[in-house]
Write a structure and sequence with these properties.
By secondary structure, the chain is of the alpha+beta class. The protein has 2 domains: 170 residues, Jelly Rolls; 103 residues, Orthogonal Bundle (Arc Repressor Mutant, subunit A). It is built from 12 helices and 12 strands. It has a 6-stranded antiparallel β-sheet, sandwiched between helices. It has a 4-stranded antiparallel β-sheet with strand order 4-9-6-7, with no helix packed on it. It has a two-stranded antiparallel ribbon with strand order 3-10. A hairpin with a 3-residue loop joins strand 1 and strand 2. The radius of gyration is 30 Å and the shape is elongated.
């Protein structure tokens, strides 16, 4: 595969290969708009020292790599290790190495920050430099990404772009960082969606509102909606709607304008007896007793 070193340098900055003059022998690289994957081989010589670049780098060790330096910390990278380096963070090797097989995934900073904001609600992600083991998902997705760039099939740009996002998401999940999935980290606009649902219930409580109807209203999966609704209100949609009907009925009973049969119909109960049974179960007395203040 042709090696576009200028594209690598644009994204990853200077790379400390001591024999880069024969780049086609030394490295294999695959570049999309926002990601460069650089793989070394037995012909690659890497110089000691540290360097920085403005992209995020995720290094996968295919063999044991000794004396990796991150800031002032030194650690060995065993085969299968995954290590993250943040933008402008000094990293490199303590000693010259020859023929060590590794892959460096260099990703444009703004893309990683965009994915972090989608998942955690903040773009300000900083990865730990601890050693993690590369997951099956990352290996699989990276392999598919490289195949798209290698063979350039129809739709290659679309596939590579979406695989890149999946790779970034998997890396964020696999490596410890400063952002945490807090309980209040809800999808954007969920409070507005919940208000929409409750307003709709208030307007249509007598018409027989279903969970399917409510979930479609805010474009959510039915069972996901039920779980999310209960998490926010401590009630299922059915329980919430039933309590809403009872509250409406209580106001009508106190108002005195309607008979109990009329109230049961206006509040959407299937019959007078269903209303009476439900009311007694919820309030502890019958609708008649509540109306008379007993």
């Amino acid at each position: 595969m042709p090696v576009d070193m200028q594209k690598i340098l644009d994204l990853a900055g200077p790379i400390p290969f001591s024999n880069i003059e024969d780049s086609k022998v030394v490295v294999e690289n695959f570049c999309s708009k926002d990601i460069a994957v650089v793989s070394t081989n037995r012909n690659t010589n890497i110089s000691h020292g540290t360097h920085v670049h403005d992209s995020f780098e995720f290094t996968i060790c295919h063999t044991d790599i000794p004396s990796i330096v991150v800031d002032s910390r030194i650690q060995d990278g065993p085969k299968g290790a995954l290590i993250a380096f943040n933008p402008m963070q000094e990293h490199g090797l303590l000693q010259d190495v020859e023929g060590f097989n590794l892959s460096g995934i260099h990703i444009e900073k703004s893309i990683v920050q965009k994915v972090a904001e989608e998942i955690y609600g903040s773009p300000n992600i900083v990865f730990s430099n601890d050693i993690f083991m590369v997951s099956h998902d990352i290996n699989l997705l990276t392999g598919l990404f490289l195949e798209e760039l290698r063979f350039k099939q129809t739709g290659q740009e679309f596939m590579a772009e979406n695989l890149a996002l999946l790779i970034i998401g998997s890396l964020i999940r696999s490596i410890r960082h400063n952002l945490s999935p807090k309980p209040h980290n809800k999808p954007k606009g969920y409070e507005e969606n919940l208000k929409t649902v409750i307003d709709y219930m208030n307007e249509n409580y007598a018409a027989g509102v279903s969970c399917s109807e409510l979930s479609k209203l805010i474009k959510m999966d039915k069972y996901g909606f039920i779980r999310a609704f209960k998490k926010q209100t401590n009630k299922t949609p059915y329980e919430y709607l039933l309590d809403l009907k009872i509250e409406k009925a209580k106001k009508m009973l106190k108002d005195g304008k309607y008979s109990i049969t009329e109230i049961s119909m206006l509040c959407g109960f299937s019959s007078h007896s269903h209303f009476t049974t439900t009311f007694r179960k919820k309030i502890g007395i019958s609708p008649t007793e509540y109306k008379l203040g007993l």
